[in-house]
Each structure stands twice: as C-alpha cells, then as structure tokens.
C-alpha cells in the first residue's frame, strides 16, 4: 500500500507528445531544428506528429480518467504559446491549453504544469547562452501564470536544467547541439536565473498553486579510491547536481577546488545579486532520477544514455561502467537502490533547507511489441519488465524515506511516472517507448499496456 498523502501521477511533455508542429500558430523550437538535421535522431525521426496529442486531448484525458489518475504532469509548449519567445500569447495555443485544463478539471484530475521542458523557441537567438533569455522566460512565466494561475495545482519552472546545459550545450547530444564543454556553464547559470525570475513572476501573477523546480539528479561516485578519481567525481557532481541544488536551496554555488577554479569560473565569479534572485522560497523540490554515475580519471570510456559524443573525448575523465547491474535498453545501469541513495544524499546535503520532494519522470524505455490474442483478436502489449522496474524504484524510494530508512528526514510528497503515452524520446526517436499506453506509429491509435492495468490496480487499491 502507498502511504496516505503520497501523490502518484503520470507525466508527459509538450514536445514529446503534442505534434501539431505547424498547427495553430506554433513556430519551431531548437528541438525542431535539431531533429530535422540528418543523423541527429535514431531512424531520422521527428516530433512533427509525435503522439498527435494536439488533436486528441479529449481521448487522452479519457485515458487518464480510466486509469484513475488524480494528478497529471504536462508541460506548456513555449513555442506554441509564445512563438517568438516574446510578445503576446498566441490565441490558438491558449485555446489548446484551455481545453486541456478544462478536460482535466472536469474529471477531477489535478493539473501539474511545467513551464519549460527543453523546447526553447528558435526565435530566441543564442538560446540559453544569452542572458536575455532568462528575462524573456520570466515574461513568459508571468503571462502564462496570469492566464492559467487559478487552475493549476503545482507549477514547475524548469525540467532538468542540468540536462539542457550538459547534453545540449556541453556535449552536443541534445538540442541545440553545441559542444562547448565547460564553456557551457553560463547556460546553467542563465537557466537558474530564469528559474528565479519565473518564480517571482508566478507569485506576482499571482498563481494559487505550489511552485518548484525539477532537476536531474544522479548519485556520483569515483570508480576507485584514487585521489584523481575522487577529484573528478567531485567535479562531475558539482556540475550535474550541486550547482543546481545549492543555488536554488542555499543561494550559493558549491565551493570549487583550486585546480578547477578556471574550468568553473562562472560559478566562482557569480554575482551575489544573481544568486539572490535564484534563491527563491519553494514549495517543493523535484528530482528526476534515471541511474547513478561512476567517474574515473582519464580519457573517454563507456558513456551511457544517448551514446557517445566526440566532445566527450576532450574531457579529463570518463563515465565508467557498472558491470554489477543489468543495463536498460537505453544503456543505463538499472539500479533502483540508488534512488534511495540519492534521496538520502539530498537530505544530508540540504537538511531543513530541503522542501518536500517530488520524484519526477520514473520510467523505462522498451521496444514494446503488440501481440494479437489469437482467440479474441484483441491487441495486447505485455511490458512486465517496465512494471518490475517501476515497482522496484517506488519501493526503493518509500523504503529510503521510511522511519528506519537512510532518507528518513526527507519529506517525499509525490512520484510521477513517465509517460502516459509513447512519444518522441529525444535522440532515440521512437526506437524506445516509455508510455503505459501504446501509440501506433501510423494510425496513432491508443492501446493501454499491461503497465496501464497494473497502475490502475495500484491507484484503485489506495482509494
């Protein structure tokens, strides 16, 4: 049984499921540009249609109602609502989200909205390398908050700013495809500044719901006990985890060892004024956990997630393998116990400064197969591995925050599973599917998977 008061919901993001890339006044995002470049995405896929959620809102909310979901996390598409990244909101984009919110509220589902899930409008030249984008994001947050602020129960400013900085600007594996390595650190700072400005804007709008942020969090350890491995593990932990958590929750950047002060100059030289803006009181703090990270000194080794990028060969360390764990189809160690370790580390680092925590985006990408039942002709998708994966992670989180757990001081407020629907999975295209509902790649018909039925039973049991 799930603890009373724990929110268990499902999540999606605009770019991954909406489609309608040329409908209703929407303009391109950096991910549209990136995905249309040859060789960037598995199979040459794009998100132009994706799961066609833009045209199937009522059907998809019906699936949520049938699931028994009490909350649904989605993201606003910035280029759909504000196609140029500035100026008035697009009326057709507003009408789309009005319809989504009305449908959700009509069936008693609590809306959880993310303002930015990676789809920076292409019109914002320089993207997050440009400090002005943080201010444009604040303007966008105010306009969206003013319009929808009475209908949304939780607001997330940014989803995984560390991933945007590292994968998009440092390593070039995500949009916009820049390979700046440590010169990408200003991107992280500007994202955090945008977060702080957006929190102020939402409160000024004002909105009635809670406000927080979600960051990717990966417990980072050295491969060996050597000083070099330990130093580079600390370096990676700084840019992946600590710079985001420390700035948001403490109003400081982490201390930097002398040998890394040049590499991390943007953190060392950050102004107190910017950090004060970033350090806003929050109602919750979200983490998105996929796998732990192991660091070893030296050249390029095994790289998980989206494959290898040539820029990684310039790093003075490598991402070492975890042979003791099975690997997910995405190439990551399948290590649910490290979610508990991550929660314990958060509690130890931030103590009373840590607000209630939401674990966001738990999921597993599989090459799901549709099988027709010979007797009935009904399509079935058996995804027992996904059920086992999700169950193990939920149990690990609950054990960690239990009375005798390593993270017993952490207030776990919710867990969001991804995804409601199969969608565009970034550089993997449609080769990996994360949905608990199968989406036919040709007709876009929806078929609930075995995991949908499992979650349905879990949610029924707690009512």
From TrEMBL:
A GO CC term attached to the entry: cytosol
Q: Could you identify this protein by its name?
A: Beta-glucosidase
What the record says about family reads: Belongs to the glycosyl hydrolase 1 family.
Query: Organism's domain of life?
Result: Bacteria
Record keywords = Glycosidase, Hydrolase
This protein's species is: Subtercola boreus
One Pfam family hit? Glyco_hydro_1
**Biological-process GO terms, alphabetical:** carbohydrate catabolic process
Q: Name one GO molecular function term.
A: beta-glucosidase activity
């Amino acid at each position: 049984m799930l603890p009373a008061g724990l929110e268990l919901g499902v999540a999606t993001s605009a770019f991954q499921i909406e489609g309608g890339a040329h409908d209703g006044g929407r303009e391109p995002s950096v991910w549209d540009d990136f995905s249309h470049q040859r060789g960037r995405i598995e199979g040459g896929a794009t998100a132009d249609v994706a799961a066609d959620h833009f045209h199937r809102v009522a059907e998809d909310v019906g699936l949520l109602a049938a699931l028994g979901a009490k909350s649904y996390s989605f993201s606003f598409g910035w280029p759909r609502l504000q196609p140029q990244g500035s100026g008035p909101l697009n009326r057709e984009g507003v009408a789309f989200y009005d319809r989504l919110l009305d449908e959700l509220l009509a069936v008693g589902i609590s809306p959880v909205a993310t303002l930015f899930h990676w789809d920076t409008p292409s019109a914002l030249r320089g993207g997050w390398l440009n400090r002005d984008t943080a201010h444009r994001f604040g303007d966008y947050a105010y306009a969206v908050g003013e319009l929808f602020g009475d209908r949304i129960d939780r607001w997330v400013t940014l989803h995984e700013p560390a991933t945007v900085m590292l994968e998009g600007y440092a390593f070039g594996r995500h949009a916009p495809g820049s390979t700046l390595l440590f010169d990408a650190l200003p991107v992280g700072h500007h994202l955090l500044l945008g977060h702080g400005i957006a929190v102020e804007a939402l409160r000024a709008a004002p909105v009635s719901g809670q406000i927080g942020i979600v960051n990717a969090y990966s417990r980072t350890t050295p491969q060996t006990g050597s000083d070099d491995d330990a130093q580079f593990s600390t370096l990676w932990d700084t840019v992946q985890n600590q710079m985001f958590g420390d700035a948001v929750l403490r109003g400081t950047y982490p201390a930097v060892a002398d040998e890394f002060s040049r590499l991390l100059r943007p953190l060392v030289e950050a102004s107190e004024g910017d950090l004060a803006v970033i350090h806003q009181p929050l109602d919750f703090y979200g983490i998105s956990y996929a796998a732990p990270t192991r660091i070893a000194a030296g050249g390029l080794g095994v790289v998980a997630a989206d494959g290898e990028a040539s820029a990684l060969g310039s790093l003075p360390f490598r991402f070492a393998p975890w042979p003791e764990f099975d690997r997910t189809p995405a190439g990551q160690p399948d290590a649910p116990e490290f979610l508990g370790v991550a929660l314990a580390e958060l509690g130890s680092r931030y103590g009373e400064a840590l607000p209630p925590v939401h674990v966001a985006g738990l999921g597993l990408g599989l090459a799901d197969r549709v099988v027709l039942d010979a007797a009935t002709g009904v399509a079935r998708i058996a995804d027992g591995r996904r059920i086992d994966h999700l169950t193990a992670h939920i149990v690990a989180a609950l054990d960690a925050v239990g009375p005798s757990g390593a993270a017993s001081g952490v207030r776990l407020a919710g867990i969001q599973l991804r995804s409601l629907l199969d969608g565009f999975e970034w550089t993997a295209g449609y080769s990996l599917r994360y949905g608990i509902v199968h989406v036919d790649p040709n007709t876009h018909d929806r078929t609930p998977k075995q995991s949908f039925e499992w979650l349905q039973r879990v949610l029924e049991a707690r009512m």
